[in-house]
What does this fold into?
Amino acid sequence: MNLEMTMMKRTSAVLLMAACLGLTPVAALAHKFWLLPSATVLTSDQWITVDAAVSNDLFYFNHVPGRLDNLTITAPDGSSIEPENQYSGKFRSSFDVHLAQDGTYRIALVNQGLFASWEVGGEPKRWRGDAESFAKEVPADATKLRVSESSGRTEAYATAGAPTETVFQPSGVGLELVPLTHPNDLYSGETASFGFLLDGKPAVGLEVEVVPGGTRYRDQQDEISLTTDDQGQVEVRWPAPGMYWLNAELEDDKTSIPQATQRRVAYAVTLEVLPQ
It folds into this structure.
């Protein structure tokens, strides 16, 4: 196989993975997917607007809107609430959230899926979906079958009144954050602790990246690179107030179906750090 064909096949795999994670093709190659709440710490009974976008410059709308297909908003009592005034434009999607209850809310975009490629009579075929539809839609005798799985979670938190911890209950699926320091209690110059779970167990040796917003206006990312300890935990000392993007991802072979040989797992959360 020549170099051009090899690169085409690799690019196709990236594009399919991007679709499963809810990203656009270019986003998968170079861009970041994020949620940006208008505020994260509020008094009782307030509203916030949340933007979702894919961009190279953090929290700057210059590429494509984020997809909201799998948006979930969890209230402090554990119930699900609906977004209001949902909108998708050229560069961003947005929606409003009514924080009617006191406590902490989790806003999350969770994308899980499989993607497959194979050949029929020498002609390449592509598919994406879930484990349930795989057996129905992908031929059992497919030639050169390649199957990968993806699990992506993008989050933000907001608190009205006193903070609560109900929404931190993990699902046990994919890569998840377990806040040891409340995500709406972060201050410049202080140190916060976070734990990570992979399928419900401590994610040991996970590489974590923390990037402050405003990358459009500086030459460097100024990222903070961390690695989780033997309990799946990291500590972050916040250098300055502002919005930060915390991201982690990995690849393994712990797939939900035997036909899949690779799984890509990703997690991202937007955190607001307040001045002292």
Residues 1-29 have pLDDT under 50 and may be disordered. The CA atoms of residues 71 and 109 lie 5 Å apart. The longest helix spans residues 3-20.
